[in-house]
Design goal:
Layout lengths: L4 E4 L8 H15 L9 H20 L5 H13 L5 H17 L7 H8 L4 E6 L3 H10 L9 E3 H4 L6 H11 L6 E5 L2 H10 L3 E5 L13 E4 L5 H9 L9
């Protein structure tokens, strides 16, 4: 078996989206004087995340554009009608807090370095291209990837097999020669598996006995990834990992 490339998810795989979003949202809601409306900060953050999940799903499904998904997040969270310009300004104030909190997971750079001698690397994300490219540049890792493939670029998002196939086509590789690493078991790992790639589920917080979907490999951290790829390639294959 030959694996020539690793495709990466970004948010909550390489980049600590949940931590950055939580820190940014708390700062923003505090600055806007909104936390006092809720019984606790956790209640406010729960609503924030629920609205985000709902509207981002609409974006991935192609129901609304990326900017409109942001406006709908504002309206859904505030619970009142908001004009586009006001929603853009409100969300922009949140973005300043969120971007100030951007950080890679500690194991991200070591994993990228470990794989670089042996595998080509690229990104497949459900977010908007302009946002992910800007994020990867700010985090100092954009140049490590041959391609940054996003839902708006290919016209569909994970777990649609067409998204995975489009990324493989841009790399000039068949799906069987590509591994995909992401934090979502169904959207990322199972989606990749069903599209003919090698699906690897990054489960940073789950219990050791978590149920692993058939045909999917599970890792608890990116330090485990080189070993998993070695086993996928097959015992006895030459190793180029340091």
């Amino acid at each position: 078996m030959t694996i020539r490339a690793v495709l990466w998810d970004v948010d909550d795989t390489l980049f600590d989206y949940t931590g950055s979003d939580r820190a940014g949202a708390l700062c923003h809601l505090r600055a806007e004087g909104l936390l006092s409306r809720y019984e606790s900060a956790e209640q406010a953050l729960g609503l924030w995340r629920a609205v985000m999940d709902e509207q981002f799903a609409r974006f991935v499904a192609g129901e609304i554009g990326f900017q409109e998904h942001r406006r709908e997040r504002v309206r859904g969270f505030l619970g009142v009608p908001v004009e586009d310009a006001e929603a853009d300004a409100w969300f922009g104030r949140y973005l300043r807090h969120y971007e100030a909190a951007w950080i890679l997971f500690p194991d991200a750079l070591p994993a990228l370095d470990a794989l670089a001698p042996r595998f080509r690397q690229a990104v497949l994300s459900n977010a908007a291209t302009v946002n992910q490219e800007r994020k990867l540049r700010a985090l100092g890792v954009h140049g490590r990837f041959e391609q940054v493939v996003c839902a708006d670029r290919v016209g569909c998002g994970k777990p649609d097999p067409r998204a995975f196939h489009a990324a493989c086509a841009l790399l000039g590789l068949p799906p069987a020669e590509v591994a995909y690493v992401g934090d979502q078991p169904e959207c990322d790992a199972v989606g990749a598996r069903d599209a003919g790639l090698h699906g690897i589920w990054l489960d940073r917080t789950g219990p050791a006995e978590a149920l692993v979907p058939e045909g999917v490999r599970r890792i608890a951290g990116l330090a485990e990834l080189p070993g998993v790829l070695r086993r996928l390639i097959g015992f006895g294959a030459p190793s180029t990992f340091g």
